[in-house]
Amino acid sequence: AAEVLRSFARNAKSLGAEIGMTMVLHTHSRRLEFHPHIHVLIPGGGIDQQARVWKKLSGKYLFNGFALAKAFRGKFLAGADAIGLR
């Protein structure tokens, strides 16, 4: 998940910067049912390494959620294939 977020942030069309984040893994729901998921906190921008400036987000959202989901699914399934889980 972190690598997908970083790759989206590095894309010049999205942000063109390095981002920081804090991630928390939750393994259960409120009813204590098994439900693994990740919560991610990302600032509304990142650091442009070449210009050494802060680049803030230009729209309402940092990245397109549908595009993120598609990229994450691809990386996740490729990783599962690499270790023989699929």
Draw up the topology in text.
Layout: H1 2-10, E1 22-28, E2 34-41, E3 45-48, E4 53-56, H2 65-82
Antiparallel strand pairs: 1-2, 3-4
Q: Give the tally of β-strands.
A: 4
**Share in helix:** 25-40%
**Spatial ordering of strands, largest sheet:** 1-2
Q: Separation of termini?
A: 19 Å
Count of helical regions? 2
Mean pLDDT: 92
Task: Provide the succession of SSEs.
Answer: HEEEEH
Oligomer: single chain
Task: Specify the overall morphology.
Answer: globular
**Rg of Cα set:** 15 Å
The overall number of domains is 1
Largest sheet: 2 strands, antiparallel
Give structural notes:
- This protein is 31% helix and 27% strand.
- It is an alpha+beta fold and 86 residues long.
- The protein has one domain.
- The strands form two sheets. The protein has a two-stranded antiparallel ribbon with strand order 1-2. A two-stranded antiparallel sheet has the order 3-4.
- The model has no long low-confidence stretch (mean pLDDT 92).
Attribute tags:
86 residues; alpha+beta; two-stranded antiparallel sheet; globular
In short:
The chain has about 90 residues and is α+β, with helices and mostly antiparallel strands.
